[in-house]
Amino acid sequence: MKQLFYFFLGCVFLFSCTSEEENRTTEVISPNKNVKVQFLLSATKQPSYTVRFKNETVIDTSKMSFDLQDALSLKGNFEILKTTTNAFNETWKMVWGEDEEVVNQYNSLKIELQETSTLKRKINIIFKVYDDGIGFRYEFPKQENLSEVVITDENTEFNLTGNHKTWWIPGDWDIYEYLYTTSPFSKINAFKDYIPGSHLGQTYIPENAVNTPVTMKTDKGLYLSFHEADLTDYAEMTLAVDTVNYKMKSELVGNAKGIKVIRKTPFETPWRTIQIAEKPGDLIESKLIVNLNEPNTVDDMSFFKPTKYVGIWWDMHIGTGNWDYAGENHSANTKYAKELIDFASENNIHGMLVEGWNIGWEQWWDKKAKKVHFDFVTPYPDYNLKEVVAYGKSKNVELIMHHETSADITLYEKQLDTAFALMKDLKIHAVKTGYVGSVIPEGEYHHGQFMVNHFQKVLEKGIENGVAINAHEPIKATGKRRTYPVAISREGIRGQEYNAWSDDGGNPPEHLTIVPFTRMLAGPIDYTPGIFNTSLKPYKENNQINTTLAHQLALYVVIYSPVQMVPDLIKNYKNNPAFQFIKDVGVDWNKTKVLDAEIGEFITVTRQEKGTENWFIGGITDENARVSKVKLNFLVPNKTYTAKIYKDKLDSHYLHNPEVYEILEQDVNSKTILELNMAPGGGFAISLIPKN
Ligand code: NOJ
Ligand code: CA
Q1: What is the pLDDT of residue 370?
Q2: For ligand 1, atom 8, which residue shows the shortest CA distance?
Q3: Ligand 1 centroid to 401 CA: how many Å?
Q4: Active site residues
């Protein structure tokens, strides 16, 4: 009996010892105490973490490790050397953005780890816990046994607590231009239905993984979105899915040599982020991603003003013109450019993009023959670049330069200096870049470390020369616009152009009711809204825009970008009263609020224009008709505003009656509740101007 007692006592003692050691935990809680992160070392002394929201586990024990080339994995046998906690609170101003003032408040925990084995390698993990989610990153300090780090895999787990409803696109290493699938997590299948279409220049999906931001809704109605912040000199993170155990694991984009990241210590990884919200709109209002980036480093951004812009662009997509000079109807000619400048200047639009202006378009997609030879300084003979720039300046319309690189990075980087010097010379302050096709040098992918560094190089050239960058086929946004406000916008989405030529029916009406909660959480989008000729007649027999005209107007408020295109042909805007909304709508904002939303169904957003007291509202729906109740309680009390409402008619329909709308005008104040019908694929746009 006595023996049994001692045995039992021994067990209890042993158990409590090991449990204390093995599960040595450290916690950090958000300022409002709702979000809690717990760090722990597992039985093998491997780092791991959990996340709780209001005492519910949202991320269960998730392990962290790194596999390295020609070295042992950084995986276990760690001990905690030191922990540091900190509380931080600041308010900073966006140079341009959705909100002028941003509150950045969090509590942080830094864990300094060292291996107990002979190598004694060190790694630190830093958690920042906000009211709206968390970010964590790894720091590799300078050390003898870890100087050059060749990462073959980062294994950061995100262990979900259920089979959440998920909005996802495949973890393609080359392109984000997909429609979102809505499915239970267990049904994610990145390969299914994603046989590369003829319209995608390049695509590579090596495994069942998703690209971020990937957004989910739990059974309890909580919204989660996974992404990354401050992606610098590192590979992008896709998330490999384990659809049986409801787990995700970081899967970095590599290159043909199987290498993901090469760095020298000291360095730090991007932040791995989880946004947590009780309402879908809170995901959009959250500033987690930008807050996790460093403050602005560009002293003088006065060269860039948010603007709407017209362009020689849609013509090529609907086939009324061509990029190349050798073909018929070369669009980028001086005469047409001047016509567009006149139109822009008459309509409160201060930018103009011209594509197909420079030599090289004849071979732009001929990758096999390796014949990409764009020249970024020499215009075609029918386009007088200097004359167009000067004419634009005289009318307060600035040219937006265009560089389609066709992803030939070797070629582009050789010309970067001269191309940017030309823009500086001509006082051109923005460029749209493009990366269609597979990357040259061969073996690199659009989302790997090599390309991340290329995009960084271009941003730096932009800063040096006073040029803002709007990249297409880009690396995803990770909030770096805070540090480098020259990163004004990017594509990285299945944009409007797919409606002009895709062979799969175009973007369905629900597309833009999902995008604000996925792609847009990363940053501004160059979607190019505002097509009025939604039937695309007579140009495109088999294509159309799957929204009503009112829905197109609403996108200027729903989709955020400091540069918003006004892409349709001039004749489709002229004499159309709905164009007044595009003329009036702001592009730079003091305040943004999501009034009502359900992901994949509908969304209503309001934004207050910077520098005025005007508010604008945009509401859109998926393929279902709805009635939206819009409370104007965000307006200044006791003030009367003129509301101009552009909305669907009762018989509007995105398929068979998309271009009919009505305009209503009425006085409103902060007590007004508007009731607005939306047609299938429809929407509404409202301007609210204070009455004197
Ligand atoms: C793809 C871009 O998304 C599109 O906007 C552009 O017109 C073409 N590339 C040509 O550069
Ligand atoms: Ca594109």
Answers
A1: 67
A2: 434
A3: 13
A4: 497
Instruction: Give the pLDDT confidence of 60-109 residue by residue, as tens digits.
Output: 999 999 999 999 999 999 999 999 999 999 999 999 999 999 999 999 99
Tokens at residue 516, please?
A: 């604000």
Please write the tens of the pLDDT for every residue from 500-515.
999 889 999 999 999 9
- Residue 673 · residue 617 · CB < 8 Å: no
Q: Please give the pLDDT value at position 364.
A: 75
* Residues framing ligand 1 (Cβ under 6 A): 313, 355, 404, 434, 436, 472, 491, 497
Q: Which of 175, 176, 354, 355 gets mutated to test ligand 1 (max ligand atoms within 8 A of its CB)? A: 355
φ, ψ at 555 (rounded to 5°): -60, -25
Question: Residue ranges of the chain with pLDDT lower than 70?
Answer: 1-25, 193-201, 365-371
Looking at the CA of residue 473, tell me the nearest atom of ligand 1: 3
Report the pLDDT value the prediction gives residue 13, as an integer from 0 to 100.
33
Show the tokens assigned to 224.
Answer: 């989660």
Ligand closest in space to the Cα of 200? 2
pTM to 2 decimals?
Answer: 0.95
SS3 (DSSP) at 382: coil
Residues contacting residue 489 through CB under 8 Å, at least 6 positions apart: 470, 523, 524, 525, 526, 561, 562, 563
The closest-lying atom of ligand 1 relative to the alpha carbon of residue 313 is 7
User: Ligand 1 centroid vs 177 CA: distance in angstroms?
Assistant: 12
Residue 164 backbone dihedrals phi, psi, to 5 degrees: -65, 150
Residue 100, classed as helix, strand or coil, is: coil
Give the Å distances, CA to CA, from 438 to 116, 175, 198, 204, 403. 45, 10, 14, 10, 16
The whole-number pLDDT of residue 511 equals 98
At 646, list the tokens. 């552009």
**CA-closest residue to ligand 1 atom 7:** 313
Tell me, in angstroms, the distance from the centre of ligand 2 to residue 436's CA: 7
Of all atoms in ligand 1, which is nearest to the CA of residue 402? 11
Closest CA to 304 of 473, 495, 524: 524
Give the contacts of 59 (CB within 8 A, at least 6 positions apart): 49, 50, 51, 158, 159, 160, 161, 274
Q: Which ligand is nearest to the CA of 317?
A: 1
pLDDT value, residue 647: 98
Provide the 3-class DSSP secondary structure of residue 358: strand
Cα of 450 to ligand 2 centre, how many Å?
20
